[in-house]
Amino acid sequence: MSPLAAAVVACAALAALCWVLSLLTREHSWVDRVWSLAPVGYVAWFAAQTGFTDPRLVLMMILAAAWGARLTYNFARKGGYASGGEDYRWAVLRGMMPATLFQAFNLVFIAAYQNALLLLISLPAWAALREEARGCTRCDLHRCGTQTVFGEGPLSPSIFFVGEQPGDQEDLAGRPFVGPAGDVFDAALQEAGIDRATTYVTNAVKHFKFVLRGKKRIHARPDVSEIDACRWWQEQERGLIQPALTVALGATAARSLTGKTVTISKVRDAPLILADGSECWITVHPSYLLRLPDADARRTERARFVSDLERIRDRAAALAA
Fold it and tell me: Does residue 150 sit in the same domain as residue 68?
């Protein structure tokens, strides 16, 4: 789930809460009571996606907090948070409208529409976040790819997968694992009984590194400096989601997560413990299966890859229990 999608979900939940409270208390100023609070939360949420390191977002958060504090103080001083502090206009409208029509007005306008406005006035912070991400210049790879490709998935995933970098199709689509390696990955997940929709999928490096051969963009492996430069983004994603179990797909992902070069064959059968105390399982990258020239070797390695995923599935279930 993207930061914007999470904000939309929070907005919908807040609208529903305001509506339910209005039914329970027969007061219809619950949106008024969160008017100065919700935008501050939304802007802070967007700023948090950069680890509070983007100056524009931090400034926007400070200004929003100052605006919210002033409005909250004035609203409280006038008794807005006290029981019976309903805006007089809602009482007037309630007296002018049939009960059923007013409740429809309460749901659509007071609760839903006004909460949507609170999110909309916070969207400049989202725009600043997207611009900051697209403008990442932590390494020279920003000169190569079409766009920055971030991860996708729920904020409470069963498993957190980290791959190497976007491929040609991922770079064009702006989504991870949608090319040939993504097809292999999806098929293996399905065979292992893992629903991709319940997982978070990202890459260690967020830009596509390639060399041109004619008109084709051929994948080029990122070097250590590029992996380390992009590690900040991976840490921001993991810091936000805090997964109990992370899977490194390939050596590049393993380097990004552990900070050192590892030999996959030596660490494949047992988890490593990351700095935050969570488990990291390491297996091959799906593209490795595509590169094997021998059909028998591909079948053998694919079966082992699925077996790894099954073991990871069972371990994730155990940690969640």
Answer: no
